[in-house]
Amino acid sequence: MTTAPRIDAVFDLDALLTPEERDWQQRARTFAQERILPVIEEDFENAYFRREFVGDLGAAGFLGMHLTGYGCAGAGAVSYGLACLELEAADSGWRTFVSVQGSLAMSAIAKYGSEEQKQAWLPRMAAGDAVGCFALTEPQGGSDPAAMTTTARRDGGSWVIDGAKRWIGLASLADVAVVWARVDDPALGEGGRAVRGFLVPTATPGFTATPIAGKLSMRASVQCDVALEGVRLPADAILPGAEGLSGPFGCLNEARYGIIWGAMGAARSCLEAALERSTSREVFGKPIGANQLTQAKLADMLVEVEKGILLALHLGRLKERDALTPAQISVGKLNSVREALAIAHQARSILAGDGITNAYPVMRHAANLESVRTYEGTDEIHQLVIGRALTGLSAF
């Protein structure tokens, strides 16, 4: 492996991985270094999403790679996590794409869809021939999906959806949207007055996705406002296996798991930049890395990267045994993103004034991580999940 010999000399992750896991990591690292890194600063500056990478990611096996069958790779949880780490070491936007496509949209279809829905969409999405999005968050806020106002009603043999969604990744590029809406249909039994999922081809009249402008974070990615105005769908557009909020939450936990690994990739990238600069920049006649204060900063950053990756690895092994709990996922997501942001800020201090330029990836990672900190559950939401697990009392 070729990340940073001086980091690996202290922290030998390879010894804890299987050959298959190391292979997936190296494949993702190669893609990130050869395809994403040469263009990412320009793309971030220009707020440009490279649609041509989608098929390449599919051909490499990264889309829905943790799913089995339907053209998906069937990789283990740790292999998927390592791929997330390497992609986010290049840019959070590309790990986010893989997450939205695979952990959200494809997982929703794989977990809750009919066989016909799986056959229609999963092979195309795994290949990158079709893009999916996951429309849950609404304009008034994403932390309280129980207050959802988007509705789906029966009209003869059809469903009609009305409502609005916000911060929906990939929506303007997507071929299909997994839309979550509140229904009131006694014909569906106990699930008839609950949140249900629907597969909405984005060419359906009444579906409009508008990219959100003015972002200072995730600029090489696409997030949208979505309007649903009388969107008429056939009766079989509903995801039959998802009833209530456990449906979208099951997908969100898949995405949160990837973030646990991915944020540590951004953190590692920042540490590598600071480490390189500490040996190449001289002040007062010697490299700044020869100063005790700089070494203390580097040591602290390495400790948090190592702890974060070891936590991710532990959670990945639990996931592979089907023993991972939502509270444990919250521990990982809260820790990884919070520490990655702290590492980005510390690395910037070592880079001094040059650290605010795009000669280094640190400010870009720090800006992106502000979004990662918010989506798939804010720090506060994960603190409350953990608090509930500790006390048995809900503070929501």
Architecture of the largest domain in CATH? Answer: Up-down Bundle
Provide the CATH superfamily of the largest domain: Butyryl-CoA Dehydrogenase, subunit A, domain 3
Distance between the termini: 44 Å
Total domain count: 3
How would you sum up this structure in a few lines?
52% of the residues lie in helices and 15% in strands.
What can you see in these coordinates?
This protein has 396 residues and is an alpha+beta fold. The protein folds into three domains: 5-131, Acyl-CoA dehydrogenase/oxidase, N-terminal domain (Butyryl-Coa Dehydrogenase, subunit A, domain 1); 133-237, Butyryl-CoA Dehydrogenase, subunit A, domain 2 (Beta Barrel), CATH 2.40.110.10; 246-391, Butyryl-CoA Dehydrogenase, subunit A, domain 3 (Up-down Bundle), CATH 1.20.140.10. Helix content is 52%, strand content 15%. The strands form three sheets. Strands 3, 4, 5, 6, 7, 8 and 9 form a seven-stranded mixed beta sheet that branches. A two-stranded antiparallel sheet has the order 1-2. A hairpin with a 2-residue loop joins strand 1 and strand 2 (72-73). The radius of gyration is 21 Å and the shape is globular.
Question: How do the strands and helices of this protein lay out in sequence?
Answer:
Layout: H1 5-10, H2 19-46, H3 52-59, E1 68-69, E2 72-73, H4 77-90, H5 92-112, H6 115-127, E3 132-135, E4 151-155, E5 158-169, E6 176-183, E7 195-201, E8 207-211, E9 223-234, H7 246-280, E10 282-283, E11 286-287, H8 292-320, H9 326-351, H10 362-374, H11 379-391
Parallel strand pairs: 3-6, 4-6
Antiparallel strand pairs: 1-2, 4-5, 5-9, 6-7, 8-9, 10-11
Helix pairs in contact: 2-4, 4-5, 4-7, 5-6, 5-7, 7-8, 7-9, 7-10, 8-9, 9-10, 9-11
